[in-house]
Give the backbone structure.
Amino acid sequence: MNDRIARLRKESFETHPSISIERALLVTEFYQENAGKYSTPVMRALNFKNLCEKKTIYIGPDELIVGERGPAPKAVSTFPELNFNYREDLEILNSRNMTSYSVSPEDIDLYAEKVIPYWRGRSMRDKAFAQIPAKWKALYEAGLFTEFMEQRAPGHTALDGTIYRKGMLDFKREIAESKAKLDYLNDPHATEKFEELTAMDISCDAAILFAERHADLAEKMATEEKDPKRKAELLKIASVCRWVPAHAPRNFWEALQMYWFVHLGTITELNGWDAMSPGHLDQHLAPFYEKDLAEGTLDREGARELLSCFWIKVNNTPAPPKVGVTAAESGTYNDFTQINLGGLKADGTDGSSEVSTLILEVLDELQLLQPQVSVQISAKTPDAFLKFAAKVIRRGSGYPSVFNADMVIAEQIRVGKTPEDAREGGTSGCVETGAFGKEAYILHGYLNVPKILELTLNNGVDPLTGKKVGLETGDPEGFTTFDELYSAFEKQLRYVVETKIETDNYLQRMFATYAPAPFLSVVINDCIKNGKDYYDGGARYNSDYIQCCGIGTITDSLAVLKKHVFEDNTITMRTLLDALRKNWEGEEPLRQFVWNKTPFFGNDDDYADSIMQRVYDSLFRTIEGQHSPKGPTYHLNMLSTTCHVYFGKKLGATPNGRFAFLPESDGTSPSHGADRHGPTAVVKSLAKMDQVKSGGTLLNQRFLPSVLAGESGIDALCQLIRTYFRLGGHHMQFNVVDSDTLRDAQKHPENYRDLLVRVAGYSDYFVDLDQYHQEEIIARTAQESF
Amino acid sequence: MKSGIVFDFKKYSIHDGPGIRTTVFLKGCPLSCWWCHNPESISPQPAVLYRPERCIGCGACLKACPCGAIAATPEGFFADPSRCTGCGACADSCPSTARERVGRLMTSEEVLTVIRKDIPFYDESGGGATFSGGEPLLQPEFLWELLEGCRKSQIHTAVDTTGFAHTAVLLETARLTDLFLYDIKHMDPGKHKLYTGVDNTLILENLKALTDSGARVAIRIPLIPGINDDEENLRQTGRFVAALKGVVSVHLLPYHAAGRNKYAKWKIAYRLPETLPPSAEAQEAAAENLKSFGLNVLIGG
């Protein structure tokens, strides 16, 4: 990397995240003065415009791509209109052991004085959660599920190519056309649509204004700049900011700055889950790259420098801190921006290009948390591109993750998207599938599936608290067959899922009503055409997901029950339940017996894998097609992010020999240590899951570095990936690190400050993880070979 | 249907022939090389491995043993070798895997079922099944049934052999095998006998006969410092191999000590306690020496 990038990278890497209360103060003042004057969408848009007009803007030394969410790199805003209205929230963040966000005592006092009193009772969290039913709270507190909308607005949004073809002025014209078509004679919602479209129009002005202020600042800095080279750069920055986002970009530089302004706009307006992602960035940039190269206005190194500047911008933007459960379960928190590389173009041809390779080089060179990169591998993707990616994987940072583009497309077509829209879609967040730029795919939280079995084995009672939180589905000692037990589990499952969905449906209408996102709606097709907000079903496609966790743990637990309790009669239900209650205390032979003498998921053993299929099918039938206010839009996906650790802490001992409070199996991976026949067996087991019916699955594999040595190691890795995808797998990601290294990093964190490891659908610095997550990664089965 | 003694399977095997393979280890070997990585594979009989560090002292094995061979001691539950028949009942009963079967009687169909599971990986990678050991040619009829079964399913086969077998057995095997991985451990008959327990005359004659028969052969040379890595031995090896037809490649397998802890587990004296893996330069030098005979030399499987 060149000196500029080295300096910017160093600053980004070393700057400690801090809380900026500027946004909270601006929003609070604006609401105090204007509440009640406008419709909610217009109020939200004017609030956004006020922020774009008044927030401190920043152009740092060396920067080529400009704009920060806060007043400086790594300064994070809060969103008091959603939550974060307790003095303790700030104090904990400042003092906690894991990566903290610094905030000064004066700022805490100011926040407590100016911000908190106004929002108490007015924030989304206060408004929405006052109405939550007791049965939901009971399940939530017992750790049966989490709730995304408690923390942030619905998100996981990624963009398609629209913003590289249209600027804000073009969107304003479309908004005017849509307004002109409003039919007040026949459309009972015409007034709401008028207000929403007005809000979108204001948001476009706000984004242009934000860019103009950067242009003004750059020009001012240029007049004061002594170094002629930097002076020219500043003037160039100014001219770029005068052009985008008002107009569609004309070259590589403008394209990156265009995206970055839109990205910043969406995360300034609201705080959506997993923020915003550029989607198929290589495909979006490739035409500009080729044109600039042909015209001689850019070379490969220039493109690399601009990409690196952009990369560092994303890394400068940690996610706003969480509150409550999520704050406890995640140490560092990044914003899950994911760049998709390769894949297919809308017309079905291979999407990989020179820009894809260039982006992988930047990723490999910078070794930063954000953005994350995935490679989307289709049957049409050249082996050379996959091998290039595999060599980056071998370096051990946990990225890029690898997706099956053909499956990602098939999953979308199954739920009614056109092939073209599906190909322009991809994965965001961790592994979640969506039609980029055209879909609101709302994640509602994780489901603790093994905990549902625990309730079933305790007739609806949570054994950790003694509270009855589930259904009475029968005394487990009275079950005479495995099927009786299983049908009790299914009843319990339906109760938990439907209790969650009732509340999710309520919450999503609350967001649609009180927290519309008009700027986000501008850049997502077809919100303008429909005159409806992104949160109100305005997008071309709308779907809702519940993320199911612990498939390995529940499969293995059911296998123990089926085989030993109901088939072989080697253990009685009473003995097993007693052992679980005692957390296996004094029952080590029994625990070892179930752990070692039961067919488990991940070994290509049909006995266990058929149980996995049965559970998956139950989850699918329970969730798929459940109704939201937008129609039968619920689907399942299969990932845990880091929630398997939190869910494990809420779960007693399980029949598969797992001790209480240890993590559950992660994603769709086998239980830690349960897969004993190598990666091909894991892949075969996973392939028995009918993944096309999900919105994403997540398979972690840890390899010892020696396995991937040499060309033959790379070839075999690529072949393993290709085979999994041929068998219908969705995703696979890798840690390439040995346990000794990780143990040494625990002992000497100072020597491993930049050791990146794959955690869930993202990588994180190993030394920033808490002990539970560190142990969890070490416990993942390390695949060896000769 | 034939049965044989199998002591292990290795899936995702990427250094025992082309592509992703499943390696099947057949038990029993006529050689006893000093550097053997699988000393437990030498005896043709099934046995039980006991690891006191995994033992939780539950005593299940005492009850399960039909021969009364196991005695409880303060150090663990050890079996009297003179009474143990290797039947494995104790291992089956052991909850903590402190006792594990090493070698189990399996039918060819059972083995083929395991092999066939990974067909999608063989298809993708040009891989297949490798039969190793021990010495697979010690169980020829079992091996042939396995090779025929693979051929029926169009699975590529490799046989990893010491070459110490009846020539007729080897040539019959060649009819059913796509690739041989054939070891040359030393060119000097006396030294060969010293380090492996057998003379190399039959091995070298068999190799000549095998290549003459039209078989495809990859030569594997374990590179053991101080034993067979001298220039003269490598030169003789190169000269011998260069005169053969049908040799597709020559693989130098650098010595590593990974098998050493197995000796402790099995309470067998390790005869190369001081030996270190050859340096990268030594590996390169050995490869260059062999390449000078016009051979396609690779380091590693």
Summary: Chain B touches chain A through 27 residues (CB under 8 Å). The CA atoms of residues 261 and 270 of chain B lie 9 Å apart. The first helix of chain B runs from residue 60 to 64.
